[in-house]
Amino acid sequence: MAGPYLQQPSFLLATLKADCVNKPFAQRCHDLETVIEEFPAKELHGIFPWLVESIFGSLDGIIVGWNLRCLQGRTNPTEYSVALDFLDPSGPMMKLVYKLQAEEYRYDFPVSYLPGPVKASIQEQVLPECSLYHNKVQFTSSGGLDLNLALNPFEYYMFYFAISLITQKNSPITHHVSPSNSAYFILVDTYLKCFLPTEGSVLPPPSSNPGGAIPSPTPRSPAVPFTSYGMHHTSLLKRHIAHQPSVNADPASQEIWRSETLLQIFVEMWLHHYSLEMYQKMQSPHVKESFKPTEEHVLVVRLLVKHLHAFSNSLKPEPLSPSAHSHTASPLEEFKRVVIPRFVQQKLYIFLQHCFGHWPLDASFRAVLEMWLSYLQPWRYAPEKPPQTAELLPRSVSEKWAAFIQENLLMYTKLFVGFLNRTLRTDLVSPKNALMVFRVAKVFAQPNLAEMILKGEQLFLEPELVIPHRQHRLFMTPTLGGSFFSSWPPTITDASFKVKSHVYSLEGQDFQYKQMFGTEVRNLLNEAQLTQMMMKCGTAQDENGKKQLPDCIESENGLILTPLGRYQMINGLRRFDVQYQGDTELQPIRSYENATLVRLLYRLSSALNERFAEQMNVLCSREDFIGRFCCYHLKNPRFVHKIRYSPVLKDRRNQNWGPRISLRFLASYRTLFSLLMLYFIASWFYIGPVGCTFIILFSYFLYAVIMTFFFEGRKPHEH
C-alpha cells in the first residue's frame, strides 16, 4: 500500500495544482477526466486526497473547494452542469473511486473531525456501535495520540462529501441562494436514488477490467484494542459478503455494501451529534450547545428522511403462497426492511429533540417542523395512490401503518408535546408561526391517526403479564441467523413489547411517560386557560383608562413576567409603556428637534443652572405665590406613579433633579414654527419683532399665573 500523498510528491500532482490557478473550471474538469482515464491507479492514488479536498473543501473549513452549497444553475449554469456531470455516480470522479477501490488503497481520515459522540468514544478506546468504524481505527504514523480512520476510497469520498455540509457552514452564501436548488442538494438526491434505489437494484460500478468486479472492503485487524458499548450489530456487509467464497459469486450481494456504507455515513455525519447521555444533559438550559444545525442542514436531512421512506416502502410484499417462502429475499430487499428502525430512528429522535428545545423561536423552525412531519407520514411516500374521487376528502391513515406508529410512538407523542411548549412561547400573531400550528394540526387531524396513536399509548401502559422481567429490553434485532430480518409475531404481547422497548431504548428505564391524550398534556392549552387569556389579554382597562400591564409579579429587582405575561407580550396582547426615566435634559435627541440647538441650549441652561442654583432653591422654597410660581417653571416633578407602566427598577422611579432652567423646548421644530407664524401674523398688523416678543411674553405670563393657581405640579414644557 502506498503511503500518504504528501510524502510522495509527483509531477502530476504539481501540474494539477498549477492548473487550479491558471485554467478555467470547465477546462480543469475536462483535464481531470482525461487524467483519470489514462493514468494508472498507482499515479492516481497520489492525487486522490488532494482532489477530494479541492472539491469539498478542507475539514477545518479554511479551503472552500468548489462551494457546491452555493453553486446553482440559475446563476452559474456552466459550472453547475460541469460539476454535476463530474461528480455523478457514473461520472469521472466515481470512476476514479472505483479504480482505486480495485487496488484496495486506504486513506487516513482524522478522528478529531468526526461528530462529538463518536470522537469521544474512539478517543476513550470504546468502539462505536456503528459498524462503519469497525476495523478502521489506527494511530498516526508519527506515534502520537491522534487517531485516524483508515478508509477505502468510496468511504473516504463519501465522508468528505457528507461532512462538507457541516464544516463549510461559514462559507460565503448570498441571500438569493436557495439550498434546495444547490448542486450539493441535487447531488445528495442523486446519490440516494443511485445507491438506495426504489426500483430495481443498485447499478454495478463501472470497471476498467472487462468482466471484472470491484471488490468489497476486506476486514482488517484492529490496530487499537477497543471495547464495544451497547448491542453490537453485525453489518449486512459481513453477513452477505464476508463468508462468500469469491467476491464475484453474487454481484447483488457484493454491491450491498455501498448502500449500507452511504447510509451510515450520511446518518453519522448529519445526525449523530448528540449521544443519549449528551441528550439528557442538554435538557438543562444552562448547558452550552456543542453543535448547532443550520436550516440548510435540516433541509438535507429532510431529503434523506423522505427518500428513506420511499426506499423502505418500495419493499416487495411478502408472498402468500407457502412455496414462495423458500426463496430467499435479496440483500437489498432485506436492507429495506430494517433501514429506518435500525439506522435512523434513534439518532433522528435525539436530533429532533435537540432542535425542538434549542431552535430559535422564529419562522426558520419551519424546516425542522417539515422534517418531523415528513418522518411521521411514511404513507405519503408509499407507491400506491389514493383514488381520484377521494382527492378532495381527507385521506384516512391505513391500519397497515399501525406498527410504524407504535414503534415510533415518541416521535408522535413526546415531540408533539415539545411542539406545544414551543407554541406557547411563540408569536402567533406572525402568519408564518400561525401557519406552522396549522400544519401540525392538519397532520394530526388525519382520520384514524389519533386512534392509532392512542392504541400505541395503551400498549405501552399495558401491564406486563407475560414478560415478568424488564431489564434493558431494547428492541434490537438478533445478530445471527435469518431471524434478523423476520417479522415479529402479530400478538398483543409482542406489540406491547415493541412499544415498551422503543420508549425505554430512547428515554431510559426510568422515563416518566406523559400521555398525549392525558390530562397533563390537555391542560397545556385547556379551555379555561384560553378563556383566562382572552379576558386578560389587553381588552380590559384599569381605573385610569389605560391598558393593563402584562401579567407579572413584584420583586426586589422590579417586575418579573409570569408565563402568561410572556405569552401576552410575545403575541402583542399587552406591553409595558416603556418611558425614559432619566434626566430629561439628557434624553436622546428627537426627530422633531434640531440637534445643534439642543446642544447649544443645553450648554446655556447648564451655565444658568450652575450660576443661579442657590437663588433658584431659595425661591422654590418659599410658601407664597412667588414660590409656587417659581416651582411651576423651575422644579421638575418627581416620577411617582400609583400604577407602574414600566418594568423600571424601584430605585430609579423617584428621582428629583431639583430646580433648574430648561430651554430645550426652544429647539423643537414645532415651537420654532409656531413662533415664526406668530411673527408673520403680527407683521400683517404692522407689529414689529420687539412688540411681538413683548406680547408673547406678556401672554405667557398671564397663562402661567392662571396655571399656578389651578394646576400645581404641572410643568409647561413637558413633552
Automatic annotation (TrEMBL):
Topology relative to the membrane: Single-pass membrane protein
Subcellular locations according to the entry: Membrane
Transmembrane segments: 669-687, 693-711
InterPro entries, alphabetized: Sphingomy_SMPD4
Record key words, sorted: Membrane, Transmembrane, Transmembrane helix
GO MF term (any one): sphingomyelin phosphodiesterase D activity
Protein name: Sphingomyelin phosphodiesterase 4
A single Gene Ontology CC term: membrane
